[in-house]
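Appendix B. Extra example for self-study. Work through it before the problem class; the solution is given directly after the inputs so you can check yourself.
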Amino acid sequence: EDKVVQSPLSLVVHEGDTVTLNCSYEVTNFRSLLWYKQEKKAPTFLFMLTSSGIEKKSGRLSSILDKKELFSILNITATQTGDSAVYLCAVVIIQGAQKLVFGQGTRLTINP
Amino acid sequence: DTAVSQTPKYLVTQMGNDKSIKCEQNLGHDTMYWYKQDSKKFLKIMFSYNNKELIINETVPNRFSPKSPDKAHLNLHINSLELGDSAVYFCASSPTVKTGGGYTFGSGTRLTVV
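Solution. Structure tokens for the complete assembly:
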């Protein structure tokens, strides 16, 4: 069965700290890995990773994929209270059609 | 303009009722999806349509029936609602099948069955 596992499930840090969120996967027919941020409503897209070892960066957020060890990390530096959210990792697989398989999410809380 | 819009945003109904959730996207995408998010925030695919054709149908009770009148709309009808159907239902779309990305989600419909 296709599986995506995120860790930790919950993380509480102080503003200014750096955090690393983990995502490991066991799937067939891997296509890409996506990171989303979910606050109160719709998940909003952060990164799409398809190649190993190439870091994607957007401001204080960065992410990298390791297709040999089957995991990805999402780093957030100099965290702010606005970074508080659930971070979702999803793997795109092809089984005839394309679909997203999500992890359980990491609930990140940034305290002032 | 809202790219993927769902209605209603909130739905509270009694067990046994039948209800529908509507979804529309104005992105010109070919593929639309329904996902269910449980109380632990776990998102799981239910259905996928490509150009009005059903292409993914996960193990979902047949009380759930999607309908796609055209490629910009994907509605979800639920018969004989049960307590366990309470969840947030997200509609999403992507440009074409097998692009590996480009998903856009609606803001969700929180369904509460009492």
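Self-check: Chain B is about 0% helix and 55% strand. If your reasoning did not lead you there, revisit section 3.
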